Fold:
Amino acid sequence: MQTIFGMSSLHSLDSGTVSVTNTQKHASWVPVAVLFRFESSVSGTVTVTRETGGTSFQLATVDLSGNQTAVWIPDVAYPFNLNDVLTVTSTATNGTVEIIRKAAQ
Structure:
């Protein structure tokens, strides 16, 4: 499942991994928030990474302990240029992740 609303996209966590690639040649974006929602309370870990030029950087790790929802809001702007990839990995797979982005300034 993938639903896209402008600069927001909703993805199933069934596989445990979701990736969003910037395929726009002349535009960059930054993540504003990454929202997690699970069907029931879960324990586990979600990780947000950025891949650029073949190198992966961990941006955040969120530990879940009996949570049904979680959110990551970046404290700095992480620009995603052409071919940069934002990847979310979750040990809990019974939910969704919404990735909200805006144009980089």
Remarks:
- The mean pLDDT is 92.
- Strands lie at 2-5, 8-12, 17-21, 29-52, 55-72, 85-90, 95-103.
- The chain is about 0% helix and 70% strand.
- The first strand starts at residue 2 and ends at 5.
